[in-house]
Amino acid sequence: MKRSQKKQVSILSFTPNGKNLSQEVAKALQDRGYEVEQAVKCKGQPDSISVSLVEWTRERFFRKDALIYIGATGIAVRGIAPFVESKCTDPAVLVLDERGTYCIPLLSGHLGGANAMAREIQEDLGSRAILTTGTDVNQKWAVDVFARENHLWISDMELAKDISARILRGEQIRILIEEGGMAEGFEQREEIALLWENKEAGSLEEDGTEAKEKEEKSRQPILPHIYIGTRRPYPEKSVLCLVPRTVVAGIGCRKDTPYLLIEKAIEEALQEACLWKASLGKLTSITEKAEEAGILEYCEKNRLGWETYPARQLQALEGQFTESAFVRQTVGVGNVCERSAVCGLGEEGRGDASLLLRKQAANGVTVALAGGRWRVRFEAG
Questions:
Q1: Which pLDDT belongs to residue 218?
Q2: Which of 103, 294, 323, 354 would be a feasible disulfide site paired with 259, CB 3.0-4.6 Å?
Q3: Third-level CATH fold of 8-132
Q4: 190: Cα separation from own chain's centroid
Q5: Which CATH superfamily is domain 247-373 in?
Q6: Per-residue pLDDT reduced to its tens digit, 327-360
Q7: What are the tens digits of pLDDT across the range 60-116?
Q8: Domains of the chain: which residue ranges?
Q9: Strand partners, 144
Q10: Are 368 and 312 in contact (CB under 8 A)?
Q11: What is the mean pLDDT of residues 269-273?
Q12: What residue ranges in the chain does DSSP mark as E strands?
């Protein structure tokens, strides 16, 4: 089971001209892969909606990825005002005038993708994207945009704001890549220094020697401002962690194991391995567990993928796994959790070398964690 869903957009217009523009915007976004619904609230239009502006917005604000209002900015502000909560959860909100001259991202410009959508509309329809966020205006690297584009979880939005403020003040930000991670498309730029973790040497490595020289002079380790990785190596209040969702939890359990025991076993395993909960991307097991209610509930609540594999596929994996004669007799393979975790990595799997945590057993639940190679991409400098 792999979760993939088109981003959902709702458009509301208020005049006949606005309705015509709505159709053009919808067509352009659909061609880009969005799922779009349209509505018009205009007297004299036979398909005009009867609900109020606020009611229409309420029904969509927490369910859609983006809302687009074609009309005056004030109308959109009145519509969304009762529901605005946080840049972490609010949808993208954009406004276009009815002639399509300007496209203004109002809400969630970075994390929600409103700025990116405004640029897409500008490219497709010629509307001028009016961007007001500081990093965009000053053409600087933006940590929240980088996180969204690379599907990274942000550990602390206040630290993210502080980093953006530092960049706008002209300071350089040190970004440390977890050992085993890959960075693509990075070009040297004044606001970012990219470092690489080397656990074997117990040090950081940088393109250039400035950080090393500073560390030698102070005789104290130079902490990064940002750490990109699945582990929790630093105090959470001092370093911003950007977390790729690449860890796979293989799981085995008795039939009808309650949800709370599933949750406890998985989260204790993540804690034991010093991994962020946000690093978890999917759960895996043997085919016989495909409809296990407690596991399905955990996946649903945490928006995780869920994949199962037949015993013969699990048994075919090469490597040294924690075998159980009882499990082999019961399901036809000597280990479910470790083997299925590695299977869940796909081409990134490297047998038992991919295991971050071997089988942990408690209360009839077994859990193992595996991690493959991951990569992030930087925009051009």
A1: 46
A2: 294
A3: Rossmann fold (3.40.50)
A4: 27
A5: CobE/GbiG C-terminal domain (3.30.420.180)
A6: 888 888 889 999 999 999 988 888 888 999 999 9
A7: 999 999 999 999 999 999 999 999 887 778 899 999 999 999 999 888 877 778 888
A8: 8-132, 143-244, 247-373
A9: none
A10: no
A11: 96
A12: 8-13, 35-40, 66-70, 92-96, 102-107, 128-129, 152-154, 173-177, 181-184, 192-198, 203-206, 226-228, 240-244, 247-253, 280-286, 305-309, 355-362, 365-371, 374-377
Q: In what order do the strands lie in the sheet with 305-309?
A: 305-309, 280-286, 247-253, 365-371, 355-362
Burial label, 224 (beta-carbon count in 10 A; 0-12, 13-18, 19+): buried
| Residue whose tokens read 């509505």 | 39
CA distance linking residue 179 with residue 83, whole number of Å:
41
Rounded to the nearest 10°, the torsion over CA 75, 81, 82, 85 is 150
> In the chain, what percentage of residues exceed pLDDT 70?
90
Q: Look at the pTM and tell me if it is higher than 0.85.
A: no
Query: Which residue is it, tokens 């990219």?
Result: 194
Phi-psi sector, 219: left (phi>0), alpha (psi -120 to 50), beta: left
pLDDT of residue 288: 93
Compute the Cα dihedral for 79, 83, 85, 90 and give only its sign: negative
SS3 content of the chain, % helix, strand, coil (to 5): 35, 25, 40
SS3 253: strand
Nearest-5° angle of CA 321, CA 272, CA 355? 30
DSSP 42-58: -TT-TT---S-HHHHHH
